[in-house]
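Fold this complex.
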Amino acid sequence: GAVVSQHPSRVICKSGTSVKIECRSLDFQATTMFWYRQFPKQSLMLMATSNEGSKATYEQGVEKDKFLINHASLTLSTLTVTSAHPEDSSFYICSARPQGDNSPLHFGNGTRLTVT
Amino acid sequence: AQKITQTQPGMFVQEKEAVTLDCTYDTSDPSYGLFWYKQPSSGEMIFLIYQGSYDQQNATEGRYSLNFQKARKSANLVISASQLGDSAMYFCAMRERAAGNKLTFGGGTRVLVKP
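Structure:
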């Protein structure tokens, strides 16, 4: 089955630093990947759609200069949280799907970010 | 308006019994898909079952079945013969073709299976 790998699974950083999260589709090509954010005991909220070879599409209220997305190849998208603050602490999870309308989104295992 | 609504924040179910998780949705797009995902405490999202808006029959996958009532805009998940490992958060999600095929999630239902 389709596998999405996300790295790192857990990261602790200090306020003001930047953190990069990688999302890879291991056995399929993904022209589109999706980045979600999940606060404790809440649902997944879509942050942005990552498009291979072009700019990401951000959801309303998501700062594109804060959350930089790069989708440089058909198997890799990265999310960089720039100048992280404690309120950026959250669970970030990426997803992608193989071609085909009925295929489900496959998710990475998520990254738990803690900003101290 | 909420696109996906899960009205049950939490449920207890006895092991080996069946449980129904409610999900209603709101869309004017004639082409859409409905998904259920399971999220254990470890955080990964596990795909369970899919129902397309044009599918005539209710989807089934092992112990999971989807009670799709299109006119009522509901897509309830039924888990039969509950197991202790079914304890998790369950999310209903919708993908609308007109919205670029991105998934919108409901608020989730936490299920706790009692031995």
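Residues 52 and 73 of chain A are 6 Å apart (CA to CA).
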